[in-house]
Specification:
Blueprint: E1 4-8, E2 15-19, E3 42-43, H1 46-55, E4 60-65, H2 70-86, E5 91-96, H3 101-106, E6 114-119, E7 122-128, H4 133-144
Helix pairs in contact: 2-4
Length: about 140
């Protein structure tokens, strides 16, 4: 097994090959030179979500939300806190279902907030409803083993 991992830059979408041992050492994108991880969730569109899921070797946790959703607003700070704890071993993304209704429908999002955890391009598990930061971290780590 190779010790290199593919990590998609959340800023430019460039795919970077990073030695696994360097993940925790603040690696920068080879294309745009910005940090690959900053401890915050990244707002994405359809194309960036698909690229992150399909091309990244690290698991991807996505929060599907909408601006009018009260529980989504309540969970947003907790999701941000979870990003600080889970990165660089899990990429945390946010997709606004109001702006990206077609993709939300394709993924079967029936209620929000819903989190879906992907690994190697496949859905591992999903959870609907708001959680606190500890709950998000515990849920994600429990699904990844």
């Amino acid at each position: 097994m190779s010790d290199n991992m593919h990590v998609v830059c959340p800023h430019c979408g460039g795919v970077n090959r990073i030695p696994a041992a360097r993940l925790g050492q603040n690696p920068k994108c080879g294309k745009c030179k910005r940090p690959l991880f900053d401890g915050h969730p990244v707002d994405v569109d359809d194309a960036m979500l698909q690229k992150q899921i399909q091309r990244s070797d690290i698991p991807v946790l996505v929060d599907f939300w909408a601006p009018w959703c009260g529980p989504c607003k309540m969970m947003a700070p907790a999701f941000a806190q979870a990003a600080a704890q889970l990165e660089p071993h899990v990429r945390l993304l946010k997709l606004n279902t109001e702006q990206h209704q077609q993709l939300a429908g394709q993924l079967g999002i029936r209620s929000i907030p819903t989190m879906i955890l992907f690994r190697n391009g496949q859905e591992v598990d999903r959870m609907s409803g708001a959680l606190d930061a500890g709950g998000i971290v515990s849920w994600a780590r429990g699904r990844l083993g």
